[in-house]
């Protein structure tokens, strides 16, 4: 790569980052409602405790985080519910490798 190419790439990325910082007026504020954190295990388990600790830590930045435990099906029921949720960024999954990697490989796409 020539020096001229590196400088051109640097200037173009700098200009794109400057354009990316402009506000998008058509969008509303992100944190208009509480965030729903779905835990695919029963209450009191390791994943539930970690999710509750995370929710407490991010409360100052993100606002209210509501924990919803959906046990059963090895986590697939909760993962499928989050996958079917409205894609607005308000529904998150506190998943493990079981429902994020292993089960989709074994079972295919959840319905």
Task: Describe the structure using short key phrases.
111 residues, mainly alpha, D-Maltodextrin-Binding Protein, domain 2, three-stranded parallel β-sheet, 4 helices, 3 strands, 50% helix
Distance between the termini: 48 Å
Number of helical runs? 4
Order of helices and strands: HEHEHEH
Mean pLDDT: 83
Quickly name the level 1 CATH class: Alpha Beta
Q: Radius of gyration over alpha carbons?
A: 20 Å
Report the sheet with the most strands, covering strand number, pairing sense and barrel closure.
Answer: 3 strands, parallel
CATH arch. level architecture:
3-Layer(aba) Sandwich
Instruction: Domain count, please report it.
Output: 1
Briefly note the structural class of the backbone.
mainly alpha
CATH-defined fold name? D-Maltodextrin-Binding Protein, domain 2
Q: Assign an overall shape.
A: extended
Quantity of strands, as a count:
3
Let me know the CATH homologous superfamily: Bordetella uptake gene, domain 1
Strand content: 5-15%
Please bin the fraction of helical residues. 40-55%
Order of strands in the sheet with most strands: 2-1-3
Stretches where pLDDT is under 50 for at least 5 consecutive residues are none
